[in-house]
Amino acid sequence: GENVEQHPSTLSVQEGDSAVIKCTYSDSASNYFPWYKQELGKGPQLIIDIRSNVGEKKDQRIAVTLNKTAKHFSLHITETQPEDSAVYFCAAKVYNAGNMLTFGGGTRLMVKP
Amino acid sequence: DVKVTQSSRYLVKRTGEKVFLECVQDMDHENMFWYRQDPGLGLRLIYFSYDVKMKEKGDIPEGYSVSREKKERFSLILESASTNQTSMYLCASSMDRGPGELFFGEGSRLTVL
């Protein structure tokens, strides 16, 4: 089955700096890669996703990049703000195959004002 | 807005007790899921259901069972709680089996003494 590894487990940045979270996956058939953000006391929420037919996707201050050859994908947050402080999870699955998402271990991002 | 409601935010139970965790979604979603969240291990799938009275095992079903008698309600059952089941439990729903954005509840933190 799929195995997703996520690094780092914790990340502390100054407000305004950039943050990068990296994930690797094992199943070369995986072609859908979402990122979820979990704020304190809440459930995870989808913030961005990418399919394997594109290498990069942006949405305002967040972007995701995908390298299918190396089987890794990354979340980039620019101009970080205190409200970006949360736990972030990457995940992978085969699109439309009915199988379940496999999640990484999570990254706790702390943005210091 | 999709709303996934978990009946109990915090529970404290004793070893050997039977525990019910209830989850209700209000968006007529076909699919419902129970995840367990532990630090460093991410979200691990316990059970899921694609339809009423249907259930499938996830990655860590041992010690758990589920019930889906109505489309909007998915219950997780611990027949005889053990201390290693102390964890955060997250319920989620999604519209289809495809990429299917997962909509999560706020979680139920269970402590087994």
Polypeptide structure, described:
The complex is a heterodimer of chains A (113) and B (113). In chain A, strands 2, 4, 5, 9, 10 and 11 form a six-stranded mixed beta sheet that branches. Chain A has a five-stranded antiparallel beta sheet with strand order 1-3-8-7-6, with no helix packed on it. In chain A, 0% of the residues lie in helices and 54% in strands. Chain A is built from no helices and eleven strands. With 113 residues, chain B is mainly β. In chain B, 36% of the residues are buried. In chain B, 0% of the residues lie in helices and 52% in strands. The interface between A and B is medium-sized, with 26 and 23 residues.
Structure characteristics:
heterodimer, A: 113 residues, mainly beta, five-stranded antiparallel sheet, B: seven-stranded mixed sheet, four-stranded antiparallel sheet, 0% helix
Total helices of chain B: the number is: 0
Q: What is the N-to-C succession of helices and strands of chain A?
A: EEEEEEEEEEE
| Distance between the ends of chain B | 37 Å
Mean pLDDT level of chain A: 93
User: Rg of chain B, please?
Assistant: 13 Å
Secondary-structure class of chain A: mainly beta
H/E element sequence of chain B: EEEEEEEEEEE
- Please state the average pLDDT score of chain B: 93
User: What is the overall number of helices of chain A?
Assistant: 0
